[in-house]
């Protein structure tokens, strides 16, 4: 019988070997990458990664209906461009919680970056710094908050899950604040882990995360399915409720954003409890399948908030046109997850930077062709949703 530690060591060896072979093939010029094609990055990542890891990053919950809808719902939104507008200069810059960034494209929190590339979250953080944007470091990072903070000079937020052991969550919050992270992003849609059937079939591993060394074990042995699912169900606090926001505010001076809002009702509650922002998200369609595509509920959340706090958007961004559509429907910025991971797996730090640059270039072109020289010029009247298109046919 192979021990879990030996299994993990073998997988890491295969991961490093496949990464080396991938780099050698790329250096020999055997792959050509179109810088405007997300699907090419995904293809290269699939070729570079062990199946278990690729399925972990790419997969969704159950039938993966919401996973497909997150992307396809964007296709049903069309543009209403303006002409004869001076777009000789197009400005993508914006501010999030008072911090200046080069574009409204941020890096979403995603777990286990070292499974995609040996440099892990450090490579992602350096790419974010080079692109002058904000990275949200995952609670499930394979690099410590200190390692990422010392890797480059950039604005970073820290994602937080709340474990049953509240002292562990509190300690991570204090470490993030001490190391210069500028905000907390509390993920609220994981009282239990969604049924990710590819991970169950592959018996997805859970690894010991360096942030928790000396605090608790994040390795779980579960022969019946996904070790990651077993870890989440063992450690995550399913009792977390709106009342616990007061506890979180009591242990930090950082602004708190809530990630995982999908309804106007919850958006109103978020404003009432005093959070500093909302991230509209269905967790990359990895939690509750048949939850709505996030772009389809964005406007409901924006209307509920009434401009009192910023609304960010997460889920299904694949092109700069998608970014434009989210902004037109009221988002202040978007968070990008899978494209970043696939860029990291394909080309490391450089791949992440290329993904962000690709989205920025496409957004700039979309703004120019739509008659929008700055982000403030993007309005609701620049897009037409599926419902509006159907109504116009009546």
UniProtKB/TrEMBL annotation:
Its main location: other. It catalyses: 2-hydroxyoctanoate + O2 = 2-oxooctanoate + H2O2; a (2S)-2-hydroxycarboxylate + O2 = a 2-oxocarboxylate + H2O2; 2-hydroxyhexanoate + O2 = 2-oxohexanoate + H2O2. It is found in: Peroxisome. Glyoxylate binds at residues 161, 196, 283, 286. Pfam families: FMN_dh. Keywords: Flavoprotein, FMN, Oxidoreductase, Peroxisome. Residues 30-388 form the FMN hydroxy acid dehydrogenase domain. Signal peptide: none annotated. One of its GO terms (molecular function) is (S)-2-hydroxy-acid oxidase activity. FMN binds at residues 109-111, 138, 159, 187, 259, 281, 314-318, 337-338. GO terms for cellular component: peroxisome. Its cofactor is FMN. The active site is at residue 283. SUPFAM superfamilies: FMN-linked oxidoreductases. GO terms for biological process: defense response to bacterium; hydrogen peroxide biosynthetic process. Its EC number is 1.1.3.15. PANTHER family: PEROXISOMAL (S)-2-HYDROXYACID OXIDASE GLO3, S -2-HYDROXY-ACID OXIDASE-RELATED. Belongs to the FMN-dependent alpha-hydroxy acid dehydrogenase family. This is (S)-2-hydroxy-acid oxidase. It comes from Quillaja saponaria.
């Amino acid at each position: 019988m192979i021990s879990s530690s030996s299994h993990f060591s073998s997988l890491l060896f295969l991961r490093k070997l496949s990464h080396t072979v991938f780099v050698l093939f790329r250096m020999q010029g055997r792959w050509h990458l179109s810088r405007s094609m997300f699907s090419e990055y995904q293809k290269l990542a699939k070729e570079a990664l062990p199946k278990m890891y690729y399925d972990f990053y790419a997969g969704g919950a159950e039938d993966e209906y919401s996973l497909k809808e997150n992307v396809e719902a964007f296709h049903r939104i069309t543009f209403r461009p303006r002409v004869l507008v001076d777009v000789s200069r197009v400005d993508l810059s914006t501010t999030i919680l008072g911090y200046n960034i080069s574009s409204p494209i941020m890096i979403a929190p995603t777990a286990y970056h070292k499974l995609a590339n040996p440099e892990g979250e450090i490579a992602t953080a350096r790419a974010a710094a080079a692109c002058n944007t904000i990275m949200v470091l995952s609670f499930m990072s394979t690099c410590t908050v200190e390692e990422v903070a010392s890797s480059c000079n950039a604005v970073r937020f820290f994602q937080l899950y709340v474990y049953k052991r509240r002292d562990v969550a509190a300690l991570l919050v204090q470490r993030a604040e001490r190391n210069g992270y500028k905000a907390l992003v509390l993920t609220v849609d994981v009282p239990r882990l969604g049924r990710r059937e590819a991970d169950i079939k592959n018996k997805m591993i859970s690894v010991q995360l360096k942030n928790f060394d000396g605090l608790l074990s994040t390795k779980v042995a579960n022969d019946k399915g996904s070790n990651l699912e077993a870890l989440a169900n063992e450690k995550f606090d399913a009792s977390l409720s709106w009342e616990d926001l007061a506890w979180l505010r009591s242990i930090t001076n950082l602004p708190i954003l809530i990630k995982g809002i999908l309804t106007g009702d919850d958006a109103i509650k978020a404003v009432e409890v005093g959070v500093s922002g909302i991230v509209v998200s269905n967790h990359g369609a990895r939690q509750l399948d048949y939850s709505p595509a996030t772009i389809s509920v964005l406007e409901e959340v924006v209307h509920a908030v009434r401009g009192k706090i910023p609304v960010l958007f997460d889920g299904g961004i694949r092109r700069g046109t998608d970014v434009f559509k989210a902004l037109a429907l009221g988002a202040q910025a978007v968070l990008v997850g899978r494209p970043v991971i696939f860029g990291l797996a394909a080309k490391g730090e450089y791949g992440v930077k290329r993904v962000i640059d690709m989205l920025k270039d496409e957004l700039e072109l979309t703004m120019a062709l739509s008659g929008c020289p700055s982000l403030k010029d993007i309005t609701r009247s620049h897009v037409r949703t599926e419902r509006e298109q159907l109504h116009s046919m009546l």
